[in-house]
Each structure stands twice: as C-alpha cells, then as structure tokens.
Amino acid sequence: MSSNSNLTNMRRLVDQLKLEASVERIKVSQAAAELQQYCIQNACKDALLVGVPAGSNPFREPRSCSLLVQDLFLSPGNRNS
Question: Where is each G protein gamma domain found (predicted)?
Fold first, then answer.
C-alpha cells in the first residue's frame, strides 16, 4: 500500500516539476523594469497615492443625517427646560 502511495506522490512531483520547467523565465532586471513601468502607468489610479475624492468615498459618514438628529433634539417643542 505504501508503495502505491509513494508512486502516486512521485508522479505528482514529476508533474509539478514539468509544469515549473515549462514556465517562461525572464531576467530579474527585465521583470523589475516592467514592474516599474506598470507602477508609473497606473499611479494615477492608485487611491493610496492620489487619495479618494470626498464625494466618492463610500466610508465617509453622512453629515446630513447627524444634523437632522440634532435638529430633532434641539427643536423648541422637545426641550425639557
């Protein structure tokens, strides 16, 4: 039984090695240059670099609701003085 399991593991290993051998390789300097070019081209779309406009920020707390709530509590008919 362990012989069969060992054979299966070896076949998986061979398949993995074949897959890795077939991957096209490029020089690190070429990969770095391509990555740098990609970053430069897409910098204008990066929210961490250019920020998020206040109008399109989905995490901004709505101001109008808090003002409405304050108006309800501060209206003359609701004062307990």
Answer: 3-68
**Tens digits of per-residue pLDDT, 28-66?**
999 999 999 999 999 999 988 888 777 777 777 766 655
Question: What is the spatial distance between Cα 74 and Cα 63, in angstroms, rounded to a whole number?
Answer: 17
Q: Are 8 and 15 contacting, i.e. CB atoms less than 8 angstroms apart?
A: no
> Domains plus CATH for the chain?
2-78 (4.10.260.10)
Question: Is the distance from CB of 78 to CB of 72 less than 8 angstroms?
Answer: yes
The whole-angstrom distance between residue 51's C-alpha and the CA centroid of its chain comes to: 15
Is 70:63 a contact under the CB 8 Å cutoff? no
